[in-house]
Amino acid sequence: MPYRILHELPGRMRVRVQPTVCGGLTETLRSWLEMLDGVEEARINVRACTLVIQFDPQQVPRERILDRLVAFRPQSATEQNLHPESDDPSITPLVRSVLTLLLLPLLPSSAQRVATFLNIGTKLLKGADTLINQGVKVEVLDALAVGLSAGRGKLYTANVTDFLLTLGEYFEVRTQQQSDRMLRRLLRPQPTAAWVERGGELIQVASDQVRTGEIIVVGVGETISVDGQVVAGVALVNQAAVTGEDVPVACEAPKRVVAGSVLVEGRLRIKAIRVGEDTTAARISRFIRSSLDQASETQRLADVLADNRVYLTLGAAGAVYAVTRDLTRVQSVFLVDYSCALKLGTPVAFKSGLYEAARRGILIKGGEAMERLAEIDTLVFDKTGTLTYSALEVTDVVVLNRSCDYSEEALLALVASVEEHASHPLSQAVVEAARERDLQHISHGEVDYLVAHGLSAEIQGGRIIVGSRHYIEEHEGIHFNAYESRLASLINDGKILLYIANERGPIGLIALRDTLRTDAAAALSKLRTLGIDRLVMISGDRREKADSLGRELRLDDIHAEVRPEEKAELIKALQRDGRRVGFVGDGINDGPALVAADIGIAMSGGADLARASADIVLTDDRLLALADAREIALGTLSVIRTNFNATVGINTAIMAGALMGRLSPAASALLHNGTTLAVLVNALRGARVVGDDRARLIAKS
Q1: CATH number corresponding to 389-515
Q2: Which whole-number Å values give the CA distances from 162 to 167, 380, 647, 661, in the listed order?
Q3: Which residues, including other chains, have CB under 8 Å from residue 123's CB and lie 6 or more apart?
Q4: What is the CATH number of domain 362-384+518-619?
Q5: Which of 72, 252, 296, 612 has the most CB atoms at less than 10 Å from its CB?
Q6: Reported pTM
Q7: 193-286: which CATH topology?
């Protein structure tokens, strides 16, 4: 893209860009530049078609920034303004106001009036337009305050008031834009290139031109542009941009990878499964965009209160004039405005909370979902894939018949050699356990597989049978009654049993269980400190297995052997008891429960339907991320309450000073704008994940 440097300082440059860029591609260009490490901020003045780039010269040389600017090519119209933010605030009104104040004492009386009305004319016209089209709003009060001073011949007061109001507006917009900029970094397009194998050659194409099923090759430092499956290679991959987890993970075939991840070490060949707008990164962007369009009940209430406070200010001004006939007091009262801080502070706080959550691998669908997350007192967990990992693990290999001359390792190797021909999760877990122990494959004959029951194969010395107890006892006539106490002990521990026999009788058992999430106990403990007083588990497993896990995690209630269609009814039963319920799940059959709950939460590996039904999606595969989400929600609402109380309290004090004639219009404007900026800065700081003691205090407030 052509450009021309207009001005340059160390760490800052201003360039003129094409009018077509200013006409609709500002968001894409900003994102393109800010993706470069070392670029702190890129701002575009749409009217002047100029671009200001602030950067750290120690991290990125100016030449690299200019090369990236030249290389900018808009990929498609769909990348334009994914979430458009307001134009950068113009500094022109501020400069005009300052110049007027400086020149006013040097001008003759008639020229002073002309200069004043030229300076404040924009504010007067804006007030009139607002009154006609929207009714009595803060812009009307500002116009009345400035206009009264000018009409009474107090020109210097009018210009000082206008300067303070203009300065406050400028900083308010800049502060609000900072929250938009934080979220824009999460939504920024990824105009990356990809190396694709086509026609026996490796060619480079734009990331949105990769087709499903194609093989892409990713090297060190490159961004993975598709959701796909590794088919060859070994590498370390940083998924922080998607999951929030900074620690790189090892990837090799057949592991899945997601778009937006960066390859740190190694080289991968990846089969594209989802491309373009279907990738995880693109769906996350759409999720966050939809979140920003959903106003919360708190925000709607703040808007109503802010509008009502305008009438309070207008009424107070009328009353003070009726009593004192003092127009100076009236001007001072007009400049006390509750609405700016109330209306702007709430959405900025929610945006800051959404950003902090997304940075930690938590996608929250708007401020209303954040409010409901803060209000719940009960959390219901689906077991598999939520409290436990979806994959099973082998816990015990038991040799029942010692006369068969099998060791535990020999038995596991034999069963794994047969089970590798099946795709059942039990089979995969057994094969993985043998692989981890580096056990050798044992030769066998053809495998006979009976769906949902088991399998058998000829081996040296006879036929081996592996499967459920029902299959071996009912179909093969081999009974395990002699080992009943041993079986009961394993079953009571919540383990799944795989039975092994031959024609002569039982040989052994392989016990498996869900892998409890490493952070499950810590996450549940932290949730209790954050005000969740009831933790419930729903499981389709047998009662013994569910109870075993429930005891280990100290859950308040356990529902076992629950059919998928019964989950939503259990949620509704808790709600009928007066509970505010959150549900955490990951499967397709969790969809109705996610919708029925007051707040639905989907795990990172959840099915697409579960993620679409949920109000919150954890992209970081940590159960502690759920506790982080609750903490951020509580903290955000605490910030909003603090800002509301400060706004009402301080502005009421300023109003009292104005009514008593203790504050001039300039002092009133200065104090009001200072309060508004302080509230916005506090909202921009937002909620942060804090320690357990502070979390407990927030939960009680």
Answers
A1: 3.40.1110.10
A2: 8, 56, 22, 20
A3: 139, 142, 143, 146, 162, 165, 166
A4: 3.40.50.1000
A5: 296
A6: 0.61
A7: 2.70.150
